[in-house]
Amino acid sequence: MTLLRSAFILALAASYYLPASAESAKQRGAAIFVDNGCQHCHTIRKVGGIKGPDLSGVGHTLNKAQIRTQILKGGREMPSFADILKATEVDDLVAYLHSCRDKKPKEP
To answer: To 5 degrees, how large is the angle CA 47–CA 89–CA 86?
Structure first.
């Protein structure tokens, strides 16, 4: 019984030091996308604005480094978010956007 209890306590303590899962990073990234108004310009899965590109499949077309660069530097009509978002927020937003991997429908 003591060994089992010790194992449980060690597992519980270790859970406080585990890194955030990729799934929770994506969920936080989705919230950051909305909280920072990204959906006013960008569409994901037919929800959002049309001023910027549709990001439904951005994870297929850009790698994580390219997505990060676009967020931090901006470009074309998109502003830079380097002074707006914290590094952890950028990480989560990149995780979320990279998970957006819808394929473009084939043209008839």
So the answer is: 130
Give the CATH number of the domain where residue 36 resides: 1.10.760.10
Q: How far, in Å, CA of 104 to CA of 45, rounded?
A: 11
Q: Tell me if 106 is assigned to some domain.
A: no
Rounded mean pLDDT, 68-89:
95
E strands, 1-108, are 43-44, 47-48
The whole-model pTM stands at 0.75
Beta bridge mates, 48: 43
Q: What angle do CA 71, 76, 77 make, to 5 degrees?
A: 85
